[in-house]
């Protein structure tokens, strides 16, 4: 029998007391993202920061900063960081990490400026010289919104500043692609998004070779180099892998259309080939980044 989150005691209870999956905007799911999934892209963050020599001279604006790990890494290199995100629970965790006085838990000068929403919410006295959008392109509903956000963000940046876009690499080099096809197959592509649904919830699709370049062009940016980085997804066990992947929001549409237990069952089955003898789950992936420049 295929294990589910219910069987492992990892699915939280709803108002009726029955198990219910964590939905968009859930604090528990934000914790799963911060504690399990966010670290999977650390090699991508490191490669970009090293290539662009991020340091004390850097004034960084991160779009979709999530719970702040990439910003924390930039801060460790001496950068002055700012970030925006539409997910308030994730942003709350970022504030705990980077701006405790914003979270009501500390005092003193803030190490970061964090805002709920898009770059239009950013009130900064200076212009940025680096903009990042690390959240992988490959969600069918996000391209239009991200292009618009990039246009707004670049207006806040110095001319010629680098803008970094992140995305999945070639599908044949991303083991997780096969697992995410479960979300793609189960989700109804005509499902409308409501206000509580993550943008990623519209579904996942394999990346095309020129996705990042096309996005840069739509945002009025000038491509100026790219790279590939190995970002394996590694988890302590199968339940952790399920929690981590569900925290991405890429399964939200499937959860709305199909029985959540069925989604969990098929996700678990898709992960089984990547489970090792010691119970850990390991999926090799390659991610790609594009460096573009503001005009």
UniProtKB/TrEMBL annotation:
Region (Disordered): 1-29
GO-annotated biological processes: methylation
InterPro entries cross-referenced by the UniProt entry: SAM-dependent_MTases_sf
Alphabetized UniProt keyword annotations: Methyltransferase, Transferase
EC number in record: 2.1.1.-
Catalytic class of the enzyme: transferase
Recorded GO MF terms: methyltransferase activity
UniProt-recorded name of the protein: Class I SAM-dependent methyltransferase
Organism per entry: Streptomyces ochraceiscleroticus
């Amino acid at each position: 029998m295929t294990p589910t989150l219910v069987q492992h005691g990892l699915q939280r209870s709803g108002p009726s007391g029955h198990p219910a999956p964590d939905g968009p905007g859930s604090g528990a799911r934000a914790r799963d993202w911060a504690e399990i999934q966010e670290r999977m892209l650390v090699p991508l963050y490191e490669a970009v920061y090293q290539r662009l020599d991020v340091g004390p001279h850097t004034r960084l604006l991160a779009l979709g900063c999530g719970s702040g790990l990439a910003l924390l890494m930039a801060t460790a290199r001496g950068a002055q960081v700012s970030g925006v995100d539409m997910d308030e629970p994730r942003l709350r965790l970022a504030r705990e990490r980077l701006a405790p006085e914003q979270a009501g838990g500390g005092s003193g000068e803030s190490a970061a400026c964090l805002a709920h929403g898009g770059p239009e919410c950013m009130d900064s006295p200076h212009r940025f010289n680096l903009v990042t959008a690390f959240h992988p392109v490959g969600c069918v509903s996000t391209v239009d919104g991200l292009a618009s956000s990039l246009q707004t963000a670049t207006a806040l940046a110095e001319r010629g500043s680098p803008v970094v876009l992140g995305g999945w690499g070639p599908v044949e080099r991303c083991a997780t692609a096969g697992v995410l096809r479960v979300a793609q197959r189960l989700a109804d592509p005509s499902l409308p998004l409501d206000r509580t649904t993550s943008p990623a919830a519209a579904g996942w699709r394999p990346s095309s070779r020129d996705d990042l370049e096309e996005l840069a062009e739509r945002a009025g940016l000038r491509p100026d180099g790219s790279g590939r980085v190995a970002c394996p997804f590694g988890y302590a066990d199968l339940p952790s892998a399920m929690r981590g992947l569900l925290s991405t929001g890429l399964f939200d549409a499937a959860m709305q259309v199909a029985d959540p237990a069925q989604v969990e069952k098929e996700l678990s089955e898709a992960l089984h080939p990547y489970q090792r003898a010691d119970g850990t789950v390991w999926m090799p992936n390659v991610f790609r980044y594009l460096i573009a420049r503001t005009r």
